[in-house]
# Entry
Amino acid sequence: MVKKVSKTKRCKMDKLLMVLCSLVILIIAIAIVLYIKNENKISNAQNGMSEYLKNKYKEDFKVERPEHKHGGFGVNGIWMSQAYLVSNPKLKFDIDCSYLNPSDCSDQYIAAIWSVQASKGLESIVKEVNASSSNGYKADSARAEIILSGKLVNSVNKQSKYEDNKTKDEGFLYRLIIDAPNDSQKTSYIFKIVEKLREEGVYSVKINTNSKSRSTGRCTIFLDKKDLGSEKDLNDCINKIGE
# Structure
């Protein structure tokens, strides 16, 4: 025989169910409010970045969805994104802005333009080095990426010239991204390219190449006028076994 649930017990169960439902609804409501609030912050940051770029360069840009980075306890962090000209989506560049003031920004637009120029110049250098290399040794791929920082990144504009700034010691970095077969010629081959860059006055160079280490995958070294580096340094980096 099935026992009947008393009215008092059923009433308590109904009240408990109502409380649980209310809590679920409250949690969902809070989550929705927080989501909308966060989306508004992202939208404001995105709009601030677009406005900053348009005011600075008098051109129309598309800013991708920004992300809040490097924030934490007591640290506001920054908004980071990529942007590109509406008329040239292929020329992407980094932009970062203050978390509290999305119109206080710094961007790599001029660096992106100069990267195209630097890569074209690198093609000529690579061809020259290839012609002088024995046994037909040559790079699998090579490109240049310019990175601006410090006072320089905010002082350059579209009238600024790559040739006038590539020789600067501060705020300018020439990133040489090059992959080549791992053999005894690799180090000297890459350093010949570095020497050609130095003939043009470019000393602030970051070499990024493939290494023999399966764990790290890349070899990265920085060179400048104070630390010219050597083929041995590069060779040790390329052949270093990952820790």
DSSP finds six helices and nine strands in the chain. The two ends are 72 Å apart (CA to CA).
